[in-house]
Structures are given as C-alpha cells and as structure tokens.
Amino acid sequence: MTSEVIKGRPLNGKADYLPFVNPATGEQFGSVVMGTEADVQNARREMATAARAWAAKPVKERVRIVRQLQTLLIDEMDEITAVMNQDNGKSRQDALAELFMTVDLINQYCNRAPRWLRRRRISPGLQIFKRCYIEQHPHGVVGVIGPWNYPLVLILPPVISALLAGNTVLVKPSEVTAATGVMIEKLFQKLPELAPFVRFLHGDGRVGAALVQSKPDLIFLTGSTKTGRLVMRAAAENMTPVVCELGGKDPMIVLEDADIEAAARWGAWGAFYNTGQTCMAVERIYVVESVYDRFLEAFLEETRQLKQGYSPEIDNLNDIGPLTFQRQVDIIEDHVEDALTKGAQIIHGGNRDGMYMEPTVMVNVDHSMKIMREETFGPVVPIMMVDDEVHAIQLANDSNLGLSASVWSRDLARGERVAKELYVGSVNINDTMSHFAIPRLPFGGVKESGIGRTHGKKDLLQFTQTRAYVVGNPPLPFDIATILRQPGNYKLGSGIIHLAFGTSPKQKLKPVVELIEDKEVKPKARKVGTAVGLTAALGAAIIAFVLRTRK
User: Fold this and answer.
1) Active site residues
2) Could you read off the pLDDT of 85-141 as tens digits, one per residue?
3) 159: closest CA among 528, 541, 387, 454?
4) The 242-245 sheet, strands edge to edge
5) Rg (CA), the chain
6) Gap between the Cα atoms of 114 and 124, Å rounded
7) pTM, two decimal places
C-alpha cells in the first residue's frame, strides 16, 4: 500500500503503516505496520498477566536481566546511531550522546535499585510496641509514551525505571521517529529474559489514545504541554495516574559580571543544539544593559561559526542538522512571523531551505510576542536587554512554563541567589542543559512544564506504590493505643500529649504541676494523681529515649 505522507502525518487518513523518512534527504527508508485498538488491548492483557511473574522476581534478579540491555546497547552502538541519524537527521555523535546518557542512567540505576527499593523500617512514634515498615510495590502495567526529538534517551530510561521497579511496560514510540522505535523493540527482542515483559505499540495518535483508554496502571508521557493536557484529560476518565515531562521556555540570564565569552559560547550551544528541538533549550535570553552589546556581538560570532548539514558518516563536522518534521516548522515560522509583525528584528539567519532552517537570532523583542512566551522548539533565540538583575528575574518568571533556566555570573554565590528566585525545576549556573545529563539529579518542571520528576531515586520510586505495614501483638493495657481508645482517659491522654509533645519545659510539665497544686484533691488522691503524673513523665522520657536510639 502506498500513501502520500509528510513525516509523522498521513495525509489521506487511511495509512495502515508508518513510513521511515529521513528529514535531511526526504528519502523513505522503511516502514512499520501500525497497531490497532485490538492490538493495544491484547498487549495490555498480556502485560497484566506477565506483571505477576516479573514483580515476583527479586530486585537483584531484575537488575541482572536489565543489565543485559546495557551490554547490548554498547555492543550495537554503531547500528543504533546509524538508525537515529537517518530517523532524526541528527549527527551520529549527537545520537551517541543520547546513548551515552541512557547507558549512564541504566548503570547507575542498576547499581542503586536494590537499595532504593528495599523495605525500610520507620519509627512507630509513641506506639512503641509496634514495628512499622514501608515497602515499594509496582503499579502493574505502565504505559510509556515517547517523544520524537530524543527518541532514545527520553524513552528508554522511563522504560528501565518501570522495569526495575517491577512493572511490565507498554511502549508507544513517536510516529515521527518510528524507525528508532522499531530499532529499540528489536533490541528487546534479542533478550529472551526481558522481552516477555515489554510490548511496543507503533502508530500515530490513535494508537496513543487507545493505550490511554486501555487503562494502564500508570502513564509516563514525554511531550508537549498540549499533548499532556489531552492525555491527562483522557486518563482522568479511568483515574489513571499520569507522570508527564512537558514543554519548556527556558530563560538564560546574563548578569553584568558574567564571563561574556563563555556565556555566548554555551548559550549559543544551548539554543541551537539538536536544531533547537530540546525541551530545556535556551529559548530566551535576558542580558543586563551594561554588557548587552558585548554579549550580542559575542553571541553572533558564535552563531556564525555553526555549521549546518547532514552526513551519515561517524566523522561529521556539522554542528546541527535539519528540523525533524513539518508541523514543527509551521510552529517556528508562526512564532517568527508574529514577532516580526510586532516589531522584532532578525539580525542573523531567518532563512529556510526545506527542513533546514538557519540558526536565527532576534532582537527588539518583548513579552507580547509568542517567541517570548510559547515553546518555539527550533533554531531561533530572542535576546532582550534588561535593566538589572531584578528586571531579569521578573521577566524570566513571566511564563506559564517552568522547566529550567541558566544564570551567568562570575560570583557563584550571587548566581545561586538569583537561581533561588527563579520558579523552575532546575537551574544551571554558568552552563546550559548540563543538568539533564546527570542521572541522579532530579529533572522536571513546575507550572505547565509537567508533573513528577525523572532521574534519581524519586524517578524510580514514582513507578511504585508505597505500602505500609504495622506489625505487633494486640495492644497491652498500658499501650498508648489502649489508653486513647478506652473512655475515661481524657485527662491522662492530655497529660501524655503535654509530656510527649510540649514545646517548652513549662508546657511539658503542666499536668504534673496541676496535680501537685490542686488544693481540692484529697491527700490520698493527690498522691495517686502525682504518682500517675510522674509515671507518665517517666514513660514519656523512656519513649523519647527509645525514639532517639532508633534514629
């Protein structure tokens, strides 16, 4: 069957396959049959059945099996980067960077998963006759929906996290980079111990919708904010929890004491790497007035040196390649046109030839423009002069998105102080985008940039449900549980609260003092009351000692 196709968007609406199209050349180099709703439902049932067997394996056994994938990724490195080069148009070295970060994360997670997932004992508080535990249990079947801009490093890590946590996985790669999705599936198929616990569902948005409707136990999505809203709305029908890493409009602040040459070099890299198709790319730059001209000239010089082109060879001197598909081209051009209409100026680049768009620098921009407020996701960066540090912080925070940011200052303490004023998930000081490459450093955004975090212990634990256990014999007569359950113990309970939780010596000893000073209490009763109070005080002291010892 043949069909006129723009990459990732069947035009006749009837395509039953996804084409593999090289955006750099326009050449189709393969295809894959799209899944159906029935395929999705069958895969969901299979993974639900397989989930019991996978979850039953000890964590160390799951780690051993996942390690096989790590070995295979390294062994087949050249084949992997070759497919990604055709599929995205990115250089083999950029594809290698994705592989590097993926293998690094797998290695660190495998090293730490047994410790992160182990059963933990916690203090029982005043219920000292109980033993309390927390265990992490898998959700069951996790659906992972991946993006097209980094189709390896943004899809394999959540799959690995879900597997290590004891889940089985349904994977829906992006239809825009379907060849990479098929390549990853073939890697799993080469591992007989791992393959039964992962299913790949190839297709367009209809397959993604079917995956959401199949009621997985958890959905992990990487994509645009628009896609995140659609998935969360659909998932809410079944109360399916969703973790999502969405869009960014990351600001870069250049203060007057910044290393201008370094800021220009790495700012340009952060803006144009992967042709700007990066969620944490530098999408807007604010420069303090006193260094604006110097920075602008240095930034232009760095931009002029960038080489754009495509090569399938390992040795490739190009810095950036083509855009990946037409829909993103349309968004970029809309943002540029909107800015130009409102008075912005292009001082470098701006031209497009097919899927190749020159690195573009814009000035005379303001926050009335889409280019300053919406995710552009392309090789365009607006640079805006600001009065001072306070002005820069104000504009950086003036966004519905809050993924990450960067601050440039030779004074590291000042850089950290400014960073703490930015309402984002991550901040780089004197660099751009490096935070994503650190596997144990949480990555994710605030506001409309997503929910949850990738990377680190919290990443792995979000693929589990916390289960609590309390173990002990039936409550004893002098157990705090017994005291608070039986009628007639109000005063005793009040005394225990003061003694155990009082915030000052006076508050702690209040019940003891009241018993001693109560003139209306008969002498014998007073002795009994005092004894009870002192006993309670002693008990509280013992409890406090036990708790400190346990800590």
Assistant:
1) 245, 279
2) 999 999 999 999 999 999 999 999 999 999 999 999 999 999 999 999 999 999 999
3) 454
4) 198-200, 168-172, 141-145, 218-222, 242-245, 450-451
5) 29
6) 24
7) 0.92
